[in-house]
Prior knowledge:
Layout: H1 4-19, H2 24-45, H3 59-71, H4 77-97, H5 102-109, H6 126-134, H7 141-156, H8 160-164, E1 171-172, E2 178-182, E3 188-192, H9 195-208, H10 227-244, H11 255-268, H12 273-280, H13 289-294, H14 296-305, H15 321-327
Antiparallel strand pairs: 1-2, 2-3
Helix pairs in contact: 1-4, 2-4, 3-4, 4-5, 6-7, 6-10, 7-9, 7-11, 11-12
Amino acid sequence: MSALAPTLQAWFTDRLIAQRNASPHTIAAYRDTLRLLLDYAEGRLGRQPCQLDIAELDAPLIAGFLDHLERQRHNSIRTRNLRLAAIRSLFRYAQHRHPEHAEDIQRVLAIPAKRADRAIVTFLDEGEIQALLDAPDRSTWTGRRDHALLLVAIQTGLRASELTGLRCGDVQLTTGPHVRCVGKGRKNRITPLTPTTTAVLEVWLAERAGNPGDPVFPTARGGRLSRDGLDHRLTKYIDIAAQRCPTLQEKHVTPHTLRHTAAMRLLHAGVDTTVIALWLGHERVETTQIYLHADLALKERAITRTTPPDTVPGRYKPPDTLLAFLDAL
Length: 329
């Protein structure tokens, strides 16, 4: 076994799990990155992953792997950069254990993240929201669950993992109704509920009849709803809602779109961006600025408040025919 294998194992067990107490999502993301990298290296070098040495994972091979992600696997630039961040974390750990490879490691750490265009966020307007909420068949158990799930997602702006991980004990419906979740970066967050959402959740939880540790929105077998399951349900209801609201056909709607929708509703209601950042659990207030860029109505209101310049529009005057003749000589 080469030096790479024990270093990789120690990075996961000692650094990420024991020292940093990384979340299961981080562990899974880093694991997937290293599996892809080792598969790529095995194909390029013709050696099994357990036989690879640190020096063989040099900067040209890492750069080729990143290109492979974009061209062959059709990953986005954001995904490419996330994979690179995981590789950098491993190599920063390796440089202290293997100073003999310091030069090769520094070349890998010098690979820059790729710049990408920032797309304007997609969100739903009020008509589209209503069409989506009306899509589930509330005469069925699944429809009532999905209606409550969509309403909570749109009103609270919870991430997909926060939504599927919500437990019955995390929902408070008496004084000061709210939901409690542990968000990105292990930050605890409390999000208030509107009277409408509270009423829907009261009816649903009474029917759900779960224990405090049970998921609020379970599968038919009582387990936690997966991310793929959430995507599947949302896609189904978007197709149904699009028959009533054709503008939904023009939008790519994901669970994160519902989070953007919650933020835009708060912005349109005049809520300050610092409060929206706290509501969504953003690490930095600057992250919330994307909603200002997406809000065309806000920009239109800004234009109406400005004083137009005091200019008179000019009128076209055809040139004198004699002067035109002289100019043409």
